[in-house]
């Protein structure tokens, strides 16, 4: 039983990181109708920004804060104004292709600048573990859960309890009605892009100590975040959380009770099952469109 | 003859006599993993070759000819490696260096064999030199040579009765697993948990939990660099306290750099290490750091010494001839006194397997420490 709980805790911690990246998928889709296939690279870039900061002697926390600012400017505002705004009027497909191209370009640039080797990033949490009722839990897993949980709860509170958050939700639900109500739609959409960029930076802080900073580290996390968003429901932020945690926990259980060789296939199997039997996702709502 | 005609005549004459004065460079092609799961290994190997080529050219080249080295990225993909091997042959390569990954060389070496082009590899899978290819040569030990040394250490020093295995599911890992199981059995040691992991695996939590729950007295980890670092981090994260033993990769500089404090205490047998207490290797280590601003791992040493073996054998046969080169490699012995670039005295057998001294290393305070120098197998 102790092993099972330990697997659940560590799987939830990993899943929480997937969820942070998956949240970006759902937020961008709801607010701007954008599917960002460079989401994994949006996690990879802040990791290298933190590494660059630490090369200049900055402590991790300061490097992280600067990475958040840089991420918001480049991956938030820069992405919106430079790529999304000029292409969005042409529909979803050109934008999807553009983000796929962006993903390849970003990887190539980082590889050219930093080489294809992996680089270590220190963990923001102290090493070691502690035991509760015979169950060993690492400081890192608890720290990840607490930080990711706090950010998700804070984000939900922001969206539900503040005027700006409600305005953002209104834009997500119906852009035209929001505009009629006097909401500055462009600004609200920009906020969503900024939030997505900062979430990606937090995911980078949490996942890079395990994944190691490497030009292609975004491939895996981007793919799992996309699956998590689909599994939970692409039009529900709560769905992204559920999808992320589900993948993290099931990967751990399959890795331990079946074989570590099969754990990478868990997200794909779940994704296929959801697409077949509940295409709107576990918590998603079916959307109707005129054709 | 007008002025223009005279000018063209002079140019034609100059072009015609050029080969007589300046010989064409010797083409060496590197097939290396510059991206994908083998990027760390391939980049180090490539840098080692490049450093050797730079030194060789500065010292006058080989047989008075400059060496022209070009490297291509196999993307850690055997299919790409095979296509690049074909291209290297078509481009007239004298010798091919790499790939480093066993899975890639096992596929690509058919092309160099067909064209009778000598091919040095960093791969360690035993099967590479068991296929009767007279043109393939190692730059490092085969698993058949290394694993018995590891098993003997586990029996004599660790005194383990049962050992758990964590290995990467590719040609390198599967070959190592089979060899260590045979070597442990020969020493009367049982195998406990047999844990397979994937190339490029990032999350080792369930694999480590399996090792923790096993009753083994020690854990043998046999994965590539990045995976080794992730495994060590997870082992420390979960408080694994039993001895962690490896072969070559586990205590390499790159793994130590990536794993940080988590690498402390790990022990491994290594064929080559930049920390070896030998003047030639110390010099190489300093030169490599000056050139690339990072420390070389064992793959860098493989590439560097491999390139100097090419120089030594070519000068021994006195001509640039792949067939004669391969013949001269059979049973060759090269002394580090005559060719300091080979770093240690080396010898090759009839299959292309290498023999030389090796080292037992332990990671202490983030540094690889050589705790014992082991003699070449042929010296016993």
Task: Write a structural description.
The complex is a heterodimer of chains A (291) and B (380). Chain A is mainly α and 291 residues long. In chain A, 74% of the residues lie in helices and 3% in strands. Chain B is an alpha/beta fold and 380 residues long. In chain B, 44% of the residues lie in helices and 19% in strands. Chain B is built from twelve helices and 15 strands. Chain B has helices spanning 3-21, 39-58, 78-90, 102-114, 143-158, 171-186, 205-213, 225-237, 253-259, 279-292, 298-317, 322-329; strands spanning 26-32, 67-73, 95-97, 119-121, 136-138, 162-168, 190-197, 218-222, 244-247, 267-270, 333-334, 346-348, 354-355, 358-364, 367-374. In chain B, the strands form three sheets. A seven-stranded mixed sheet of chain B has the order 7-6-8-9-10-14-15, sandwiched between helices. In chain B, strands 2-1-3-4-5 form a five-stranded parallel sheet, with helices on both faces. Chain B has a three-stranded antiparallel sheet with strand order 11-12-13, covered by helices on one side. The longest helix of chain B is centred in the first third of the chain and has 20 residues, at 39-58. Chains A and B meet through α1, α8 and α10 of A and α2, β7, α7, α8 and α9 of B.
Write the layout of secondary structure elements.
The complex is a heterodimer of chains A (291) and B (380).
Chain A: H1 2-32, H2 39-55, H3 60-88, H4 92-114, E1 129-132, E2 135-138, H5 139-161, H6 163-173, H7 175-180, H8 185-211, H9 217-232, H10 237-257, H11 266-277
Antiparallel strand pairs in A: 1-2
Helix pairs in contact in A: 1-5, 1-6, 1-8, 1-9, 1-10, 2-3, 2-4, 2-8, 2-9, 3-4, 3-8, 5-6, 6-8, 9-10, 9-11
Chain B: H1 3-21, E1 26-32, H2 39-58, E2 67-73, H3 78-90, E3 95-97, H4 102-114, E4 119-121, E5 136-138, H5 143-158, E6 162-168, H6 171-186, E7 190-197, H7 205-213, E8 218-222, H8 225-237, E9 244-247, H9 253-259, E10 267-270, H10 279-292, H11 298-317, H12 322-329, E11 333-334, E12 346-348, E13 354-355, E14 358-364, E15 367-374
Parallel strand pairs in B: 1-2, 1-3, 3-4, 4-5, 6-7, 6-8, 8-9, 9-10
Antiparallel strand pairs in B: 10-14, 11-12, 12-13, 14-15
Helix pairs in contact in B: 2-11, 3-4, 5-6, 8-9, 11-12
């Amino acid at each position: 039983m102790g092993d099972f709980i330990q697997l659940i805790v560590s799987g939830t911690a990993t899943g929480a990181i997937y969820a942070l990246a998956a949240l970006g998928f759902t937020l961008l889709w709801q607010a701007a109708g954008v599917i960002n296939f460079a989401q994994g690279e949006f996690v990879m870039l802040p990791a290298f920004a933190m590494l660059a900061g630490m090369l200049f002697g900055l402590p991790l926390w300061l490097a992280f804060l600067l990475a958040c600012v840089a991420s918001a400017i480049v991956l938030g505002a820069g992405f919106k104004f430079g790529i999304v705004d000029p292409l969005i009027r042409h529909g979803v497909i050109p934008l999807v292709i553009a983000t796929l191209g962006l993903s390849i370009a970003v990887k190539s640039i980082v590889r050219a600048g930093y080489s294809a080797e992996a680089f270590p990033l220190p963990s923001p949490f102290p090493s070691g573990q502690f035991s509760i009722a015979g169950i060993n839990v690492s400081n890192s897993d608890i720290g990840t859960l607490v930080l990711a949980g706090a950010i998700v709860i804070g984000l939900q509170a922001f969206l539900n309890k503040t005027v700006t958050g409600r305005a953002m939700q209104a834009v997500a639900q119906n852009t035209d009605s929001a505009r009629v109500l006097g909401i500055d739609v462009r600004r609200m959409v920009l906020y969503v892009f900024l939030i997505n960029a900062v979430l990606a930076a937090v995911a980078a802080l949490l996942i890079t100590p395990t994944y190691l900073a490497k030009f292609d580290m975004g491939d895996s996390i981007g793919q799992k975040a996309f699956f998590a968003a689909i599994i939970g429901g692409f039009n529900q932020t709560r769905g992204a959380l559920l999808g992320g945690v589900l993948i993290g926990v099931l990967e751990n259980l399959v890795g331990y009770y079946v074989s570590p060789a099969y754990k990478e296939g868990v997200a794909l199997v779940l994704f296929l099952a959801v697409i077949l039997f509940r295409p709107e996702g576990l918590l998603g709502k079916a959307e109707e469109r005129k054709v | 003859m007008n002025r223009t005609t005279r000018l063209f005549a002079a140019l034609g004459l100059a072009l015609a006599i050029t080969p007589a004065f300046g010989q064409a460079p010797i083409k060496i092609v590197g097939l290396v993993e510059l991206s994908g799961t083998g990027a760390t290994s391939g980049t180090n190997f490539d840098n080692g070759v490049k450093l050797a080529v730079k030194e060789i050219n500065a010292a006058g080249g080989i047989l008075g000819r400059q060496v022209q080295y070009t490297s291509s990225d196999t993307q850690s993909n055997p299919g790409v490696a095979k296509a690049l091997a074909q291209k290297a042959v078509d481009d007239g390569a004298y010798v091919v260096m790499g790939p480093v990954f066993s899975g890639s060389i096992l596929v690509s070496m058919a092309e160099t064999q067909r064209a009778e082009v000598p091919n040095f590899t960093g791969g360690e899978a035993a099967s590479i030199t068991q296929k009767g290819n007279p043109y393939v040569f190692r730059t490092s030990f085969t698993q058949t040579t290394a694993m018995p040394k590891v098993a003997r250490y586990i029996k004599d020093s660790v005194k383990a009765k049962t050992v758990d295995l964590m290995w990467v599911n590719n040609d390198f890992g599967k070959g190592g697993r089979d060899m260590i199981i045979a070597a442990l059995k020969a020493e009367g040691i049982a195998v406990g948990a047999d844990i397979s992991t994937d190339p490029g695996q990032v999350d080792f939590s369930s694999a480590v939990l399996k090792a923790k729950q096993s009753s083994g007295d020690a854990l043998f980890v046999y994965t590539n660099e990045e995976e080794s670092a992730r495994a060590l981090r997870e082992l420390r994260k979960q408080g694994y306290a039993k001895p962690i033993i490896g072969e070559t990769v586990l205590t390499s500089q790159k793994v130590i750099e990536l794993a940080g404090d988590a690498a402390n205490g790990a022990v491994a047998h290594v064929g080559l290490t930049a920390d070896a207490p030998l003047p030639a290797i110390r010099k190489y280590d300093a030169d490599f750091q000056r050139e690339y601003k990072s420390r070389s791992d064992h793959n860098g040493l493989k590439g560097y010494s491999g390139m100097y073996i090419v120089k030594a054998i070519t000068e021994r046969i006195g001509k640039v001839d792949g067939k004669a080169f391969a013949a001269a490699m059979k049973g060759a012995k090269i002394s580090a006194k005559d060719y300091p670039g080979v770093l240690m005295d080396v010898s090759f057998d009839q299959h292309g397997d290498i023999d030389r001294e090796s080292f037992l290393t332990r990671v202490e305070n983030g540094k690889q420490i050589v705790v014992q120098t082991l003699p070449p197998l042929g010296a016993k």
